[in-house]
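User: Just a sanity check before I run the rest of the batch. Below are the structure tokens for the first item. I only need the designed sequence back.
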């Protein structure tokens, strides 16, 4: 048997050797210890198999910051939600509360960092972009808003129109509907009763809108790979011709509505007065200097869209109806450029219809497939840029919610070469919308959005992972705040927003 040797004596043995015995305590049962909820763990973890031990401790750096600064590093810390006003869109998954959305209401609040009601919605096809748009429009009708669809290339809003008891207008070859993009709109009403100053102010608005339209339409025509130029000389000619045709030059008490074919004929057969106003030496000089301008106008009159936008408007729009939509699906066989030109014309016409909006007339203006119009060139991009800048209204009137849909930012940036004026304006359009809805995207597209908006890794992963797992999920950027929102649809709304009929019919 192995003997155990003790090294040294304990305290009781030491005192006993000197005749001092320590009193012995009565034996007692130890108190039962309560189970511990938490146990101390070593800094490197328990050194046992499968218990997470690490050979070196992780460096920990402490930081101090305010609650306003923290979202820069951790953008998805659940903070204060948006006020519970407007359309209830779904669930804010970070806080678990309902997510409400009211763009104009947000602009009116000082505690929300939003200065305009413009909304840009991006999403890969099939991620719920259209469903979110339609659900928002339908739910805002209950709050007094009316909907204007300025061009529906795929008839996606037809069901929504029928649900609200409205028949959409159909534009296309062989269809009876005509729209005059040079229409005067509501500004023509009561012109004879206006003072001289008020008449000049209205005329300035009308001619400015028309010049923006003509820049976009003429600039959409090509000479090989180059766009037809529209400089100060072309602007002077167009403006002088429009003043002649409307009677503004002669000081008429009312303006006469004109059309694009009338403008073309007036330039092709100019009067001596027009030649003099434009400061040309003679008729031949006028013809030589305006050949490209006249040919571009002629192509618009006799081209693929002949008969659609070259006569007076013959549709009677009920602006008190909850929704109005202009279908462009019959133009799809003509190509993206034809649809783009149609969208530019409808944009000008729609702006004219809203130039005198009654106070309290709230409207959601939906612009679908806007990249098709932007690809027409820099002037078309400027037209959309002007609409977004005027979304807050003019002279206390207007103030619509401008809602633009697109698949990815590169669709917008293909309007011109990198660094060109068109590409720079298109990039800046992103910053004219304080509200952005980013649905699911592939990593490359999410990277584009990150580069343009400075989203960060966590926000990018939301688009490429979480938002791709179910339709309707999106990252909502409201000013400087970020929200993970899952849109919830009622079964009736699911039927109204379904866009896979063509795929179902092919099976």
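Assistant: Here's the designed sequence for the first item:
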């Amino acid at each position: 048997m192995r003997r155990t040797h003790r090294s040294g004596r304990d305290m009781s043995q030491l005192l006993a050797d000197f005749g001092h015995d320590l009193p012995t305590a009565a034996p007692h049962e130890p108190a039962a210890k309560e189970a511990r909820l938490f146990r101390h763990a070593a800094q490197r973890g328990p050194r046992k198999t499968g218990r997470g031990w690490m050979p070196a401790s992780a460096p920990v750096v402490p930081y101090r910051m305010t609650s306003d600064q923290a979202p820069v590093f951790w953008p998805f810390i659940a903070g204060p939600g948006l006020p519970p006003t407007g359309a209830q869109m779904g669930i804010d998954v970070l806080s678990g509360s309902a997510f409400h959305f009211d763009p104009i209401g947000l602009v009116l609040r000082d505690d929300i960092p939003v200065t305009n009601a413009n909304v840009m919605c991006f999403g890969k096809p099939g991620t719920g972009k259209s469903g979110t748009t339609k659900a928002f429009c339908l739910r805002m009708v209950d709050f007094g808003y009316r909907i204007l669809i300025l061009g529906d290339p795929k008839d996606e809003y037809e069901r929504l129109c029928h649900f609200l008891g409205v028949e959409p207008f159909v534009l296309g070859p062989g269809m009876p509907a005509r729209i005059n993009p040079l229409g005067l709109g509501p500004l023509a009403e009561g012109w004879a009763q206006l003072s001289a100053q008020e008449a000049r102010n209205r005329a300035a608005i009308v001619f400015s809108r028309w010049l923006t339209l003509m820049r976009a339409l003429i600039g959409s025509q090509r000479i090989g790979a180059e766009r037809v130029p529209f400089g100060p000389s072309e602007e002077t000619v167009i403006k002088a011709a429009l003043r002649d045709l409307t009677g503004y030059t002669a000081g008429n008490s009312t303006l006469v509505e004109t059309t694009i074919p009338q403008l073309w004929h007036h330039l092709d057969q100019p009067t001596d007065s027009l030649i003099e106003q434009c400061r040309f030496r003679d008729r031949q000089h006028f013809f030589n200097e305006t050949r490209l301008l006249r040919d571009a106008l002629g192509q618009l009159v006799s081209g693929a869209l002949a008969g659609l936008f070259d006569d007076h408007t013959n549709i009677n729009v009920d602006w008190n109806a909850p929704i109005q939509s202009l279908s462009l699906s019959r133009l799809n066989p003509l190509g993206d450029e034809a649809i783009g030109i149609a969208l530019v014309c409808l944009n000008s016409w729609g702006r004219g219809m809203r130039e005198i909006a009654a106070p309290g007339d709230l409207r959601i203006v939906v612009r679908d497939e806007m990249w098709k119009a932007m690809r027409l060139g820099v002037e078309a991009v400027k037209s959309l840029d002007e609409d977004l800048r005027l979304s807050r209204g003019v002279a206390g009137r207007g103030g619509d919610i401008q809602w633009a849909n697109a698949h990815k930012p590169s669709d917008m940036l293909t309007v011109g070469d990198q660094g060109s004026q068109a590409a720079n304006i298109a990039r800046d359009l992103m910053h004219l919308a304080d509200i952005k809805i980013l649905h699911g995207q592939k990593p490359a597209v999410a990277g584009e959005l990150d580069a343009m908006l400075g989203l960060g890794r966590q926000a990018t992963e939301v688009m490429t992972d979480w938002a791709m797992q179910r339709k309707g999920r999106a990252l909502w950027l409201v000013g400087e705040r970020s929200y993970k929102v899952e849109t919830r649809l009622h079964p009736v709304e699911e039927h109204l927003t379904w866009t896979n009929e063509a795929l179902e019919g092919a099976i």
